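How a chain folds remains the central question behind the approach discussed here. The record that follows shows the chain in one-letter code together with its fold in token form:
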Amino acid sequence: MADFYQNGIITNLHNLTDRPLEELEKELISFSRIRPMSLVLPSLYSELEGPALDPIIEEITQVPYLNEIVIGLDRADQQQYQHAREFFGRLPQHHRILWNDGPRLKKIDALLQQEGLAPKEMGKGRNVWYCYGYVLASGRAESVALHDCDIVTYDRSMLARLIYPVANPGFNYEFAKGYYARIAEHKMNGRVSRLLVTPLLRALKKVYGSLDFLEYLDSFRYPLSGEFSMRADVLNDIRIPSDWGLEIGVLSEMKRNYSTNRICQVDIADIYDHKHQPLSADDAAAGLSKMSIDICKAIFRKLATQGEVFSNETFRSLKATYFRIALDFIETYDNDARMNGLQLDRHAEEKAVELFAKNIMKAGEHFLANPMETPFIPSWNRVISAMPDILDRLYEAVEEDNS
């Protein structure tokens, strides 16, 4: 159970009483008459064959307040797409699958490429971007939640708590970020958030001072969670990174577009576990190694847009500062784990910190060598300006695929 303490500059909505799910859902049904709700599920086809997605869908079939479910399906051939239609067909709610590898959506992508507006790489960011485009095209939702499809500890109360802040007409929040304790199987997880993001933000404060953006990011209890919700009007002007910087990029965009009193974070689960990425210490293009590089680049890019200057010397200082802070955090987490009877491998933790320190330099070198890089997918407002009928085309393509 969380306490009531409000840390940082972002409102915390705690789970203080384990309020019955039936009460939350009753309110959400009432809210849905004013603010219809949509759920976006970005999924790889392989997740249909994994241990998590089938129980997730069984839980979602019982959700009474959703007006729409949008499933983004990646890496599926025609036979696999047909299987996905059967798999998701049990959903009683209105739902649509975006077959991203199908000929109709590939044609849409080719049209966007001709205008230089298409996502530049495959991945979750691209999937989410197209799903958000369809949500705008369908016009069935005022509030939209998104969560991953590999959560092995899922129950529908997570969704209820996640979407509540942006669905309640009495609240003024445009965006809610889910958070939770990354504890499962008597182990403390969440290495990238614990051992990279938080120590890196603290190190950046030492090198650059207590900047508003750093205070903002450091206010989030779990900045890398893949669970967030927003009002549908947010979707028009948000620019989504196409790489592993998605979560940091979305937070950055919310800070750019909205006052912090329109942003909150909400406690959605006591226990959370999902598919774990390998460290991939020998491959900077895979696993947590690539994730850490992409996250660092996302943070550096945002600070650069605010006028902060980076150089090889500042990156060396940043790496050294980060390394010392991260090692101190390992002792803190080790003590926390031991007091709670959890397992924590200090050797593995230090190996992760050593890799992350190297990757801060790699991210910095990439940042300095590619000053014209534009990793963000354009906002839908820009795309619509260039191609006024694009949402109609996207909507028709998805409807034809699903007919």
Remarks:
- The radius of gyration is 21 Å.
- The chain has 14 helices and twelve strands.
- Residues 11-402 form a domain with the Spore Coat Polysaccharide Biosynthesis Protein SpsA; Chain A fold (CATH 3.90.550.10).
- The first helix runs from residue 21 to 32.
